[in-house]
Fold:
Amino acid sequence: MAKLRILSFDAVIIGGGGSGLRTSLQLSQSGYNTAVITKVFPTRSHTVSAQGGITCAIASEDPDDDWRWHMYDTVKGSDYIGDQDAIEYMCSEGPQAVFELEHMGMPFSRNKDGRIYQRPFGGQSRDYGRGGQAARTCAAADRTGHALLHTLYQANLKSNTVFFNEWYATDIVKNQDGIVVGVVAICIETGELVYVRSKATVFATGGAGRIFASTTNAMINTGDGIGMALRAGFPVQDMEMWQFHPTGIYGAGTLVTEGCRGEGGYLLNKNGERFMERYAPNAKDLAGRDVVARSMVLEIIAGRGCGPDGDHVMLKLDHLGEKVLTEKLPGILELSRTFAHVDPIKEPIPVVPTCHYMMGGIPTNIHGQALTLDKNGKDQIIEGLFAVGEAACVSVHGANRLGGNSLIDLVVFGRAAGIHIETMLKQGLEHRSAAESDIDNATQRLQRLNTSTSGENVSVLRKELQAVMQNYFGVFRTGSFMQEGIAKLKVLRERIANVSLQDKSMVFNTARIEALELENLFEVAEATAISAEGRTESRGAHAREDFTERDDVNWLCHSLYYPATKTLAKRAVNFAPLTVPKFEPKIRTY
Amino acid sequence: MVTNITSLGRNGVHDWLVQRISAVVLLAYFVFLVVYVATNTDLSFSQWQNLFSHTWMRVFSLTALLSLCAHAWIGMWTISTDYFTSAMLGSAATVIRLGFQLVCLLILISYFVWCVQILWSI
Amino acid sequence: MLVSIYRYNPETDSQPRMQDYQVELPQGKDIMVLDVLQLVKEQDSSVTYRRSCREGVCGSDGLNMSGKNGLACITPVSHVIKNNKLVIRPLPGLPVIRDLVVDMAAFYKQYERIKPYLQNDTSPPAIERLQSPEDRAKLDGLYECILCACCSTSCPSFWWNPDKFVGPAGLLQAYRFLIDSRDTHTQERLAELEDPFSVFRCRGIMNCVSVCPKGLNPTQAIGHIRNMLLERGI
Structure:
């Protein structure tokens, strides 16, 4: 194959969402030659869709608020497989990271003292669960993600980050020592393939909600980073843990924020009953998302769902009044009118649990360094590779993420990775060499696709994949059923490996990108399926009908999926925070 | 700030204000003339000449004349930079635009000089 | 339903052309134009357009649908269909890269020109900078812009001088920072805008207001900037 043009940077960040932009900002502010490769213009990244807020104990609504309470909630929310050192780091560094965002100009909503407005969100408590509901989620109306992403992009413009907008990274370039030395990427506009060489490669590629038929995720959420890591032979962690958001708009899949319930909205079944009072007597509609989503599905299964097919429930907001709704939830009014054809000021919104967030991902330490296990089962750093944001599994979310914790994860760990790479660069981190064959390896699947002559259509295969995941790996899971799903995926792998690209043009060929994305979707789906089948317990978002109880004896650990053997290993959860006593696993009730 | 321009003022606030003030002056001038003609139904040439022999009328006319020139220049310059652009006309745009602007300028100067001559010859 | 789509591939076409597709709409459901495009792409994978969030917040799929700019993902077919036909073209006024994808460089350049970031010379406090709810309310209707370019590409002044006139989207953001109580560079920002092109090419025809998918009002913001410039200039 012809020699590729080479671009060199101190650090390359793949992905222009919140976590990627926070990492790049850290580095370019310090004067390092930093590039962001992003398949869409940065403000089109999925962070823009985040609504309700960013959870952080800045003690604005409650002067006594304490990051340790936030830590307690997060550990409990994770069903105790969140790493406590990482959660400690996130909750304690969080306020600083949020204040920095405000200093950059982020237009947070304000309370009457002029401080950042905070609203109640699910799973939040005061005083380690003893002090009732907390209000800890900092918000910019219900457009917090939009405000955050635009602010970060603007800050990057100010600090002269190099942007490769509408470039698509296809695969990792790994040298003979197993060190990640960069990626191969396509300029979508021209079709040119380039080797981007970097001292540190950061995956900020976001989630992969598009493996499910019904998802709140953007169409670009195809798990590209996870796919690339798996193809390079690196393991991924806790891939069975997929969050189903309780309130996706029925039929459309678009999200309505948990902030609706934070502001006082609640769910109703067809009898007009506020059923969450039965499932979570204390927190009610603000229980953990996994709990609420499961309760909704149980209501629907019990025949108490709404609509002619009884397949959804209702989110009531009208009692909050027009003033609160237009001030605090203007975006929700817009979305409901457009996608559900209802006006929340007058009538309830039809909602159904919808795939929303990937708690799993590339395992990392708190510096964003990607990890694998050595022969003795000890953590081993994958040199050159970093992961942040939803693509990473630090793991602060464990088996279930709390609302508002994704945005704080982005900025805290995006920043942390940036700081760490900065230190490494200062200490003399250099480019590592790659042989011609290493680069060729990374271009192989593109070569195959470009020379494909027969095979199946991308959109047909994608639909089938999404249907399998939706049907066999949804809110409730069963072993035998999942094995069927895995068998179906096996067949799909062959067919997807043989996908054909009819349009082979160079300029802005989105068909080629979609074909490459499909392969990534498949890798994520398979990792999810095998991890889900392997974890024989119910924990957090992973609910099994054949193993209904949490099993702390065998499964108080991360699952680690190895792509080469398609097998599952266990990795210990961190129970050693540095400044506070550890939180012991307890029965999780709300 | 956009600086590569041929506008005489090179300042949008200035242009914007001049455009509006000159419009008000022109309106006042023409309203005055119309009212004058309408109220003097048997207007004779000597009467008309007499009107323009007053210093205040000469100053008023001169102000209106200046306003007209400024107003027309800003307007024509704006039109030329809207329509005679390289996106519209290719590489010849600059020459065409500059030519148009020079012609406008020459016409305005000629009219101005001519009008001053007329006013002061009365 | 008949969908007529603007097609142009620089590798094979010397001229753009309109291509017709027959699409079966689902019964009893008013789908969005983006859904129609997806159905077309299933028939013909070479049809090219941008899309991401599919819920009207990312700004990827600004298109011209039956003559009016808007976001394909939140525009129901029933709103733009004429005589059982839907005509989809790229946003006007920007160079076409391929099919419905335009080169937005000129648009982004104007956005970058207004320095779209907070500038404050005082050192930040240990916590957030305080801002009263009233001062924060001044940013409403401004910060929500999604940079879809529907407004700027419906503005004749921007078509004529995309390199000099900032355009409605850029000016909306310029005002967002001019009016932010936390920004200390108001005078420098205004100085950058006082030439005859940057702001004053707005003629107030309000095309931008009529197409904005987020219901924002750039014309009003431009009026405010003009007033600030006048106050400063007199």
Remarks:
- Chain C has nine helices and seven strands.
- The first strand of chain C starts at residue 2 and ends at 7.
- The two ends of chain C are 58 Å apart (CA to CA).
